[in-house]
Write a structure and sequence with these properties.
The protein is 37% helix and 25% strand. The protein contains 9 helices and 10 strands. The strands form 2 sheets. The chain has a 6-stranded mixed sheet with strand order 6-7-8-3-9-10, sandwiched between helices. Helix 3 runs parallel beside helix 5, helix 4 (115-129) crosses helix 5 and helix 8 (225-232) packs across helix 9 (239-247).
Length: 251
């Protein structure tokens, strides 16, 4: 199927006036197979969110290249950005007094969907994600709001979905349900390529076909859990053991 996401030597340095430069992402090179799930695992401040923002075309890197389904994101190819759906953990863009349906209708219009296309797509996503579409956002649980944000990211039927801490602030039952949706529906049933940024080790292991371990802006290793054990030089051990081995003295 080929690679849906390819990056080469991505680096991002933030400069704020007279303040010291911040190296947020350094030399990141990744390939993600189409239809697979990549979990980007790292502590807070590792650079995960910045990396997703670069992949989405929301932040320009200081250097490096990004291709989505073979199209260059950084060079401004509009078709590339149209292939991407994004749900960021700090998103506050939903309108609280409007219903889930009304929010999604607004964003569908921004994507250029007709009223008929919008209605059909919203009903479809509402059924798949089990969203009470006619309930106001402010009356909805955190889990439902998170599902609305994912529905928004899927409105234009993107090939690649970027999710930043998708289960953050969810109760255990809601988090488990959302993970099942990501793994079973988005990846297995709909064939989406999904990149998830998380600091939750069990979540990374449950969702990722491969796991990229990130700290201090760099990808320390990427592969299946078994492959990561080999890279870490461990014959046995948990993902936590692997993570600490690969990031010690580097974080």
């Amino acid at each position: 199927m080929g690679f849906a996401v390819e990056t080469h030597n991505l680096t991002k340095i933030f400069k704020k006036g007279w303040n010291p430069e911040t190296l947020a992402v350094e030399g990141v090179s990744l390939t993600v197979q189409a239809g697979s799930v990549l979990a980007i695992l790292g502590p807070n401040g590792a650079g995960k969110t910045t990396l997703l923002r670069i992949l989405a075309g929301l932040v320009l890197p200081s250097s490096g290249h990004v291709h989505i389904c073979g199209l260059d994101v950084i060079q401004g190819e509009g078709r590339a950005r149209g292939l991407i759906g994004v749900s960021l953990g700090d998103d506050r863009s939903l309108y609280a007094r409007l219903s889930g349906r009304q929010n999604l209708e607004f964003f569908a219009a921004l994507h250029g969907l007709s009223r008929q296309e919008s209605s059909q797509r919203i009903d479809e996503l509402g059924n798949i994600l089990e969203i009470p579409l006619d309930q106001s956002v402010q009356a909805s649980s955190t889990g439902i709001r998170q599902r609305i944000l994912i529905a928004r990211a899927l409105l234009h039927d993107p090939a690649v979905l970027l999710l930043d801490e998708p289960t953050k602030s969810l109760d255990p039952a809601s988090a488990q349900s959302l993970r099942g949706f990501i793994r079973e529906t988005l990846a297995s049933r709909l064939g989406k390529t999904v990149l998830i940024a998380t600091h939750n080790l069990p979540e990374a292991e449950a969702l990722g076909d491969e796991i990229a371990i990130m700290s201090s802006g760099r990808i320390r290793a990427c592969g299946t859990v078994d492959a990561l054990r080999g890279i870490a030089g461990l014959a046995t051990g948990t993902l936590e053991d692997v993570f600490h081995q690969l990031t010690k003295e580097r974080v």
